[in-house]
Amino acid sequence: MAQTPSIPLVDIQAVHKAFGGVRAVEDVSVNVYAGEVMALLGHNGAGKSTLMKMLAGAYPIDSGVIRINGEAAKITSPADSQKLGVETIYQTLALADNLDSVANLFLGREIKTRWGTLDDYAMETAAREVFHNLNPNFKNIRVPVRMLSGGQRQVVAISRAVYFKARALIMDEPCAALGPEETRMVHNLVRKLKAAGVGIFLISHDMPDVFGLSDRLCVMKNGKTVGTYRTADVTEDEVLGMIIAGKKPEGKPETGRMAQ
Amino acid sequence: MMALQNRLQVSALDLRLSIMAAVLVAMSVAFHAVTGNFLTPENLYNIAQQSAVVGIVAAAIGLVIVARQIDLSVGSVMATIGVLIAYLMYSHSWHWVPACLAGLALSILIAMYQGWLIAYLGVPSFVVTLGGLMSFRGVAFLISDGRTQPVTDANFLLIGGGLDGALGPTLSWALGVALSALIVWNLVSRRRNAAARGFPMRPLAFDWTLALFFVASTLLFVAVMNAYQLPSKEAGQGIPNPVLIWGAVVMGMAFIVNRTSFGRYVYAIGGNPEAAVLVGIPVKKVMLQLFLLLAVMVTIAAVVSVSRLNAGTSSLGSGMELYVIAAAVIGGVALAGGSGTVLGTVLGALIIQFLESGLLLMDVGIGYRMVIIGQVLIVAVVFDVVYRRATGERL
User: Fold this and answer.
1) Residues in chain A whose beta carbon is closer than 8 A to a beta carbon of chain B?
2) What count of other Cβ atoms lies within 10 Å of the Cβ of residue B19?
3) Hey, which of A60, A100, A253, B84 has its CA 20 to 30 A from B211?
């Protein structure tokens, strides 16, 4: 990216979410710019996944605004979010185990023939290309995905973001269940997408992931933000301090702007 | 085994369908050996005709079960619709076409009500349709005050088969040949399309064997139906109308399952409901549409059964919900959802009717028949569990 974009690609402003009496997300603001990786950290139950599910359209927001390219977005369903160019790779991968890889890649957004029926040939052709680019060894794409390995299942989930040309991408613990080889594949992909100008929210517990991939990081605790920093400005210990104790590192500037 | 399965691109499901077809053949040979008159055109003609009503509903309820739902009210709703149609024709002298349309309208209304409770309010379908099982049996009674409504319209009665309600030899052969051509055309165009895109293909010989098996089954079926001749008639009967309707329903359902996104969404919902929501499938809408689809099939079944019985009575289809669910389950539809085929429901309905008919020919009493059919259902489910465990399919 030659020039710094002036407005964030995705700007989440003062968002609240409560489940019954439990305040899952309270007054959280976080943003990501095009071509940037924003890491979201925190304990289980800190509100990261809930926050991202609101952006993905899986939960409605109670109050607050989500702006995409500066425009307030109305996201009431996953389909709304997808239409705005936001793709999500869930920790659970959101795959229908009984269907094959091609069907899963296009699930909810099938290619149709001019008679409105499923165009299996077009879908398989496109799917083979996407899968091949992600992992050339992935060949058995016509078996139910429950028969696939963890890495292959991850490829199927990621392929949705690649095929549908995500502008913004949410990745929830993308490497949690993967071996070293597949983790490297995911890291390369993140760098490739980033270079292509995709804005990425990366939820992760894994410090090497966070420090290896992210430009900025935002720590959450008990549904609130502790702070947002340039990844290069903070150390691993300081980040752990924020996650565990909610303690801001001293003398480090917080930033709502893109890292340079 | 796995390697061969992969090479032939046969799924565990295809294999199990073949096993069931083999069971069907074995059953008919065994019954014929014992009774001596099972494999006669007359008996097979009657079996085909008697399976149709259960088969029509089973084809649709299979899809409902795939989506992890159930409908226990189909027998009672069928009675309500059947009585309404007969009542409009007999007590109000309606023509049969508007009477059937009125039946369809009521069926859709009932499905909107039950489907809305299930899809949008999230009430378990078991509970909603258990209530429906009782209520709609009552509605069937209320419509005509419990009185049987005889039906005499000759055209309407053709729908249910009977003496004249069959296609006749010439048209039956024409249909058989047309279906065979369709099977072959489908094979050729599928292979050509796959070859043009460089997709891996099944061995040519295997594909042709499979296609020829279906062609042979189709033509054999037509031949048997044509061989059945009533003493009072000059030509054979041919395919009976209820079976024709059943066949159309099965082809329609197979089209929906394999070629439309609606069908794919139903399987996705059954496989992983949370994922279906997260990828943006309108789960509630799909669920409601599914019950509407079932309502259409129940209406068709109601029309066929009123026509077969020459009357609408409030006891129409009582206990049918159990038969259609049994047919679907015996046919390999998993109650856990996400798996099952339309063709399986056909085989399931036939297996039940083969048993009924075979045991009847053996002079087995009604009590024993019920015991045996009930236990066969359990055998089918045990087989299902063992088979899925062995092939790594979902339970």
Assistant:
1) 56-58, 77-79, 81-82, 88, 90, 92-99, 103, 107-110, 112, 116-118, 121, 124-125, 128, 140, 142-144, 146-147, 160
2) 14
3) A100
**Is residue B84 domain-resident?**
yes
Measured N-to-C along each axis, helices A180-195 and A150-163 cross at an angle, to the nearest 10 degrees, of 10
Domains of chain A and CATH, by start: 1-87+195-260 (3.40.50.300), 95-165 (no CATH)
> What total number of domains does chain B contain?
2
User: How far, in Å, CA of B395 to CA of B392, rounded?
Assistant: 9
List the single residue in B194, B258, B277 with the smallest CB-CB distance to A78. Answer: B277
Domain boundary (B211, B239, B267) is at: B239
- pLDDT tens over chain B, length 395 residues: 556 666 666 666 678 888 889 999 999 999 999 999 999 999 999 999 999 999 999 999 999 999 999 999 999 999 999 999 999 999 999 999 999 999 999 999 999 999 999 999 999 999 999 999 999 999 999 999 999 999 999 999 999 998 889 999 999 999 999 999 999 999 999 999 999 998 888 888 888 998 999 999 999 999 999 999 998 888 999 999 999 999 999 999 999 999 999 999 999 999 999 999 999 999 999 999 999 999 999 999 999 999 999 999 999 999 999 999 999 999 989 888 898 999 999 999 999 999 999 999 999 999 999 899 899 889 988 888 888 788 766 54
How far is CA A92 from each of CA A16, A172, A209, B278, rounded to the nearest angstrom? 24, 9, 18, 10
| B252 & B360 share domain | yes
Could you give the CA distance from residue A18 to residue A237 in angstroms, rounded to a whole number?
Answer: 31
Task: Collect all residues of chain A within an 8 Å Cβ-Cβ radius of residue B11.
Answer: 143-144
